[in-house]
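Suppose you are handed a protein chain with no further information: no name, no annotation, nothing but its sequence. What can you learn? This example shows the usual starting point.
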Amino acid sequence: MSTSLSTLAHAVRLMLVETTSLDPTRIVIGPPHEAAKQHENDHQDRDYLCVFFYRVEYGGLPTDATSDDPLYLKALCMITALGGRSGDVTPGDSELKLIGAVAECFHKNPMLKLKDDDGIIQAQIQIIPTQLTLDDINHLWATQNNTPYRLSLSYEFALLPFPMKTRVDPAPRVSAVSLGIRTPEHHPEKEIEKRLFTPRTPIIHVDIERTDWAPHICLLDEKKEPTYTLGGYDPSDEISLIIIGDKKKEISLEWEVWNQTDRIWQKGVIKENFSPCSASLPKDAASLASLAIQVKVPLLKDNEKGQVLLRATRSIDREGSAPIKLTSNPVLITTAGDLL
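A reasonable first move is to predict its three-dimensional structure. Written in structure tokens, the prediction is:
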């Protein structure tokens, strides 16, 4: 059974295989002296890389985490090139090419997605270049059985969940806050008057001239007013949704559904693509209603009470790099009934 660290190490090796076209057996996971020994026993004309995790630190420590939540770690890794001699190409020249390929690989791919044994993405690891000082280099290589120093780069991989699983939110989300005032002479049997506060929708404008603009969404309540939360929802109804952004672009909708019975958030994506209605949110109610689209909310199990969190996303392609997903603000829809 693989652990998070082992999964990370093999994912790094796979990235380097795709970048350098080296055989996986020539990307050694372990200390440099083992890689150097394997390189010496093999043909000297072959290139090798060494992936050496030399330190692991505690990373994010959420204040509300329990022993059921994953532990987050930061893993520091040194990648060393061991070049082979091929014709007029010296080992030193080969190592320069290898290190250059490694640096380019992690520069173009600063995020690494880790999957569990079922192929489900459980973590997105940020790859951060770190600087090795001369003292760091001396301390690291002094433990390598007199192995001579080879050109190396160092990276921090964070945050790594241990074990490999995403944190599960075990409760519904807050949609409104109530405020009540009582006097010192208040009687317990007397009901306190409370005022309900929900997030207000501001004046919204999305700068679609920027290539990295993110969509913005809001709902229309029964009064046809914009809002970020909708309470007392009937699962058989449709919601009125307004998407702000570039009309020429396609938007996807991503859902998180709170199942009250199983007490778990379930994620899903609507396959259908939508387009923004405007780059700005108009002020008058008539214009708001004309811009809204009707969307069917994913039904809960047996139409039971629960919550649905909705976000709009768009992707932009980058030449030579992985696409970027831009995500909107969330809106929260709560069905009728008590969720506590």
